[in-house]
Specification:
Helix content: 25-40%
CATH class of the largest domain: Alpha Beta
Radius of gyration: 15 Å
Strand order of the largest sheet: 2-1-5-3-4
CATH superfamily of the largest domain: Beta-grasp domain
Distance between the termini: 40 Å
Structural class: alpha+beta
Order of helices and strands: EEHEEEHHHH
Strand content: 5-15%
Number of helices: 5
CATH architecture of the largest domain: Roll
Number of strands: 5
Length: 159
């Protein structure tokens, strides 16, 4: 089965041997998008979060066959050639990085929220953070990264 979609703005085609392949596996194994991490495998931890048509999706639950025609964004598709995406930069600025397993999921969840809600409330930030588990940092620095991202987006005229 041939599946066509846009990956980080570029058209891609993937030949699936079976219709039960998961998006996380296609991204990591076939398309070398290893920023998307395997986590729990049941959609609970959020480490595999990618954006599908602008919405955060647990790629460990998403059948790759069902993204035909979709727009997929992974953490690799955020940075420009010369600079980090403002959400990535916010995570660096606030030291919200530890082991790296959950951070791509957190960054993608933050992007999804901030693109739809440029000035989120603390409650909206907490709800977004709650979609991805972190065992290293706790959540204070991650929450600070969201707020820093809002500031950076405003300074860049993106909010």
């Amino acid at each position: 089965m041939l599946v066509k979609f846009k990956l980080n703005g570029d058209p891609v085609e993937v030949m699936l041997k079976s219709g039960d392949r998961l998006l996380v596996d296609v991204l990591r194994e076939d398309l070398q998008m290893t920023g998307t991490k395997h986590g729990c495998g049941i959609g609970a931890c959020g480490t595999c979060t990618v954006l599908v048509d602008g919405y955060p999706v647990a790629s460990c639950l998403q059948l790759a066959a069902l993204v035909d025609g979709a727009e997929i964004r992974t953490v690799e598709g955020l940075a420009a050639a010369s600079s980090l995406h403002y959400v990535q930069q916010a995570f660096v600025n606030t030291s919200a990085l530890q082991c790296g397993i959950c951070i791509p999921g957190h960054i993608m969840a933050a992007c999804a929220l901030l693109e739809k809600t440029p000035r989120p409330t603390d409650e909206q930030i907490r709800a977004s953070i709650d979609s991805v588990y972190c065992r290293c940092t706790g959540y204070a620095r991650i929450a600070a990264a969201y707020k820093e991202a809002v500031t950076l987006a405003r300074k860049a005229g993106q909010a």
